[in-house]
Amino acid sequence: MGIHIAASPGDIAPTVLLPGDPLRAKFLAERYLTDVRCHNEVRNMLGHTGTRDGKRVSVQGTGMGAPSFSIYVNELLRDHRASTLIRVGTCGAIQPRIGLRDVILATGASTSSGMNRHRFQGMDFAPTADFHLLRAAHDAAERKGVRVHAGPVLSSDFFYDDPADWQRWAAYGVLAIEMECAELYTLAARFGARALAVLTVSDHIVDGGHTTAQERETSFTRMAEIALEVATSFA
Ligand code: HPA
Q1: I want to staple 185 with a disulfide (CB 3.0 to 4.6 A). Which of 90, 110, 127, 225 is the partner?
Q2: Residue 179 Cβ contacting ligand 1 at under 6 Å
Q3: What is the per-residue pLDDT across 33-71, written as a single tens digit (0 to 9) for each?
Q4: What is the dihedral of CA 219, 220, 224, 225, to 10 degrees?
């Protein structure tokens, strides 16, 4: 039993979906899984485990930003032997060709966070997605007729960043900014797990566009359906 996830060994499935918002974790489990059991309530960072298409799947909230995310994902990998992790989250697009509500599959994550600089003693690690999860998610998105892009993201420590900063990353082909993907891919590599971030564009940093609460809800369920399809095919 970890400090932040109060579940016993075996309570959590090897395949885990990771929304930042714990209420989204609850919503997702209640809407899509059967035989649902809450495995964590510590700090209200809700985690649930259930079954979909005969496969056990867990959904665990992570909070926002790399340090919070890292706590939950470390415990999932170390204490609960998670082997497939799929983040379902939002991002801000920094390329004009990407539209609001499009889905981005993060092939790799650059980062402005200090965590990997510390971990690798000033050297750079290249955090990358699992190819098989990525391919399956791309296929699932296309089958559903969703506008999908596969490419690099920036995992930033700032939600409210200096507006000048995103342009440098955009010039190097980065599609969007979010806050957790680099830590997800780095931890998955460390523990020999598979990982993917499936992101919907909730805001457009180039033109200042935002989705409404209703649109965020609809695009969240669409993204969750892609992630669940991938999760059950790998569980
Ligand atoms: N910055 C960082 N993370 C985000 C953003 C953003 O603009 N939008 C959604 N997640």
Answers
A1: 127
A2: yes
A3: 999 999 999 999 999 999 999 999 999 999 999 999 999
A4: -30
Q: What tokens were used for 217? A: 């809800």
CB 91 within 8 A of CB 199: yes
Q: Ligand 1 test: best mutation among 154, 174, 202, 220, most atoms within 8 Å of CB? A: 202
Best residue among 162, 203, 219 to mutate for probing ligand 1, ranked by most atoms within 8 Å of CB: 203
- Who's near 14: CB < 8 A, 6+ residues apart? 56, 81, 82, 83, 84, 235
The whole-model pTM stands at 0.97
Ligand 1 center from residue 179 Cα (angstroms):
7
The architecture that CATH gives domain 15-234 is 3-Layer(aba) Sandwich (3.40)
